[in-house]
Amino acid sequence: RAKAEGRGCYRIFTAAMDETVKVRGAIEEELREALATGVGLEVAYQPQVAGAGKPIVGLEALVRWRHPGRGMILPDQFIPVAEQTGLIAQIGELVMRDACSTSRQWPNLFISVNLSPVQFRGEGFAERMIQIARENGTDPRKIELEITEGVLLDDEGQTAQTLKALREAGFRIALDDFGTGYSSLGYLHRYEVDKIKIDRSFVNSLGKEDSATAIVSAIIALGQAMKLTVTAEGVETQEQERFLRSAGCDELQGYRYSKALDREQVARLLDPTPRLEQRSALTIAPST
Ligand code: C2E
Ligand code: MG
Ligand code: MG
Ligand code: MG
């Protein structure tokens, strides 16, 4: 009887595995197609503000996949497959090119680009980034590269070298999801970065758990002491905003200000066209 049960379990297990493998295979195939045709992969931009009621200072590039059958797919659902199949390098370059052209459109803002650890460790990665910026006529100082602990985790000296090359070219480096890794402080000590982004799980717990308040205050104080810019992600409420502002957080990002937008929506936000009345008032003005 035990044997029968065991066999049953085994069968269910393989069926589930088959399903996973099939889905993964399908995603891989469709991702390849999207990359080959240039249709489906898009970049959305989430505004970052210099504080409550203050202007937009930056935009974070967030990749989206508009799938013909399955609708909009978020990065958490396909980045892991892209990493396992090596397609992340091409996706990363697509995002970087889009970010460069967005940067040209709004040169007063910085554009943040997320880097996958797999992409970061690729052969000649820093050189490719520098080349893409150059080809697009973009000043690397306007591009901020967001890395996570995963990037810094393996250390054979290669990581430090790549970071150094990127910073020397002018790119700024931000530590994303700060505080969630195992050794965030160690990395701050070892690598030169420009900014830390407080993970949204801490921001979300503000006012709910005392430990979150203590952690967020400590991260902001640490950033200030190290002369780094501190950004809070996932700001949704006025209470969170008030706390972050009083604690001295430099930049805020979250649904309270805006979700990620397509480029046209960003344009409407940043370069609003004068309404008809205003425009005619302007044209009439000189003759009166
Ligand atoms: P992340 O870099 O930490 O990006 C912030 C994520 O939080 C985004 O999700 C954003 O839409 C979401 N978010 C922003 N404000 C709020 C808020 O107020 N509340 C809540 N609940 N969420 C908020 P998204 O776009 O789904 O991206 C998820 C993750 O996927 C990103 O986390 C990043 O790690 C990764 N990712 C996104 N785009 C790229 C890319 O081009 N390349 C790579 N390698 N990874 C990417
Ligand atoms: Mg990010
Ligand atoms: Mg983050
Ligand atoms: Mg993240």
Automatic annotation (TrEMBL):
Query: Which part of the entire sequence is included in the shown chain?
Result: 475 to 762 of 763
**Keywords from the UniProt entry:** Membrane, Transmembrane, Transmembrane helix
Q: EAL domain: from which residue to which, for each copy?
A: 24-274
Coiled-coil annotated spans: none
Superkingdom of source: Bacteria
Which residues does UniProt assign to the signal peptide?
Answer: none
Indicate what this protein is called per its UniProt record.
EAL domain-containing protein
